[in-house]
Design goal:
The chain is mainly α. The chain has a domain at 3-82. The chain contains five helices and five strands. The chain has helices spanning 3-8, 11-21, 46-53, 59-68, 94-115, and strands spanning 26-27, 30-31, 34-35, 72-74, 79-82. The strands form two sheets. A three-stranded antiparallel sheet has the order 3-5-4. Strands 1-2 form a two-stranded antiparallel sheet. A hairpin with a 4-residue loop joins strand 4 (72-74) and strand 5. Helix 2 packs across helix 3 (46-53) and helix 3 (46-53) crosses helix 4 (59-68). The longest helix has 22 residues, at 94-115. It starts with a helix and ends with a helix.
């Protein structure tokens, strides 16, 4: 994990990246299903994960947001499972981004033509 890059990411992405990469939270190349809060001090938990990768944000807020977008699944037994590697808005696909890129390019070309001195 590139720490310089990850520190600029959204806190939820830092948490997800740690969940998939940090040996404390991974077994057999898969993120562990974690209790939300650990009952034992050294046991991994979502709270510990969030505190490690987003110490400036209350872990409950990160959990709520990741649950809202479907990046984590809250299980009936009080544990959470990672479902997505990246946090991001839904509905942004390659086709939509390609169309947005064309429109922004056209807008920039138009503004450059309009702003040129005559």
């Amino acid at each position: 994990m590139d720490l310089a890059l990850e520190t600029r990411c959204h806190p939820a992405n830092r948490v997800l990246a740690g969940w998939y990469a940090d040996r404390t939270f991974v077994r057999d190349d898969k993120p562990l299903v974690l209790p939300i809060k650990a009952t034992e001090r050294k046991r991994p938990s979502f709270w510990k994960l969030a505190n490690r990768y987003a110490p400036d944000v209350y872990p409950g807020l990160i959990l709520r947001e990741l649950s809202r977008i479907g990046a984590v699944e809250e299980l009936r037994d009080g544990r959470v499972r990672a479902r997505l590697r990246r946090y991001g808005p839904k509905g942004l696909n390659k086709k939509y981004l390609g169309e947005m890129r064309k429109r922004v390019r056209d807008l920039l070309v138009t503004s450059e033509v309009v702003s040129r001195p005559r």
